[in-house]
Amino acid sequence: MQTPAEILIVTAVDGEKEAVLNALENDSRFNVIVGGVGAVAVAVNTSRALTADNYRLVICAGIGGGFPGKAAVGSLVVATECVAADLGAETPTGFCSLDDLGFGFASIKTDSGIVEHLMKALQKTELTVHSGPVLTVSTITGTSGTAKALSHRTKGASAEAMEGFGVGFAALSHGVPFFEIRAISNVVGPRDRTSWKVKEALDNLGVACKVLREVLV
Ligand SMILES: O=C(O)c1cccc(C(=O)CC[C@H]2O[C@@H](n3cnc4c(=O)[nH]cnc43)[C@H](O)[C@@H]2O)c1
């Protein structure tokens, strides 16, 4: 009988899942699922997977945008926290997060022990690696004004994607440690889809997943 997987990896789309699976080389400790694009889809699908089977760790993995001056295209970002950056209210004096409004929380800390351990191992690769807050947004940022507003809202914001907070919320509610890793495919700012380096980012995500296999023993 095959031993059940211990680590759940959630991607948004098939291309990301393929990159992760290729790097993992059928390592039976990992189960990789496509959770869908956006925090709601991944939260539902992560929660379903965690209800069906026991896992000791959940990882949100994919490509993402890097904030200018924080994470360049081709680098990796490991999240210290996942911030639901547009969950709240706009007011005449600025943005109010869910925490400010008293309706809950908009930030989930990742597992600091695992993140530190992984960062040390990733720093031994040829890739540039950063750790810092990764924002979860519902709308991909398309102007430098929004990029500035978001980085002002969250100190140290390093990357932006669309799923981390949803995966993290499901992991937290099931009491399972969690982190997010993003391979940077584009700059957060004025939209230019033709400039996205998706293949390079997926290759780098693969390098990171090979390291994951070695460190998560
Ligand atoms: O076009 C492709 O071949 C392709 C292959 C794999 C993935 C994609 C995606 O577009 C994935 C969507 C996914 O990407 C994240 N993402 C990437 N950059 C950003 C960004 O600047 N802001 C927000 N999200 C970003 C996001 O998590 C999406 O789910 C395409």
Automatic annotation (TrEMBL):
The yes or no answer to whether the keyword Hydrolase is present is yes
GO biological process terms held by the UniProt record: L-methionine salvage from S-adenosylmethionine; menaquinone biosynthetic process; nucleoside metabolic process
- Give the top-rank taxon of the lineage listed in the UniProt record for this protein: Bacteria
EC number(s) stated in the UniProt entry for this protein? 3.2.2.26
GO terms (molecular function) for this protein are: adenosylhomocysteine nucleosidase activity; methylthioadenosine nucleosidase activity
Q: List residues of the Nucleoside phosphorylase domain.
A: 31-216
Reaction(s) this enzyme catalyzes, per UniProt: futalosine + H2O = dehypoxanthine futalosine + hypoxanthine
Report the pathway entry: Quinol/quinone metabolism; menaquinone biosynthesis
Q: Which GO terms describe its cellular component?
A: cytosol
UniProtKB keywords: Hydrolase, Menaquinone biosynthesis
Q: What class of enzyme is it?
A: hydrolase
Query: Which residues, by range, are in coiled-coil regions?
Result: none
Q: Which NCBIfam families match?
A: fut_nucase, PRK08236.1
Q: What does this protein do?
A: Catalyzes the hydrolysis of futalosine (FL) to dehypoxanthine futalosine (DHFL) and hypoxanthine, a step in the biosynthesis of menaquinone (MK, vitamin K2).
Tell me its family: Belongs to the PNP/UDP phosphorylase family. Futalosine hydrolase subfamily.
Q: What is this protein called?
A: Futalosine hydrolase
Organism expressing this protein natively: Desulfosporosinus hippei DSM 8344
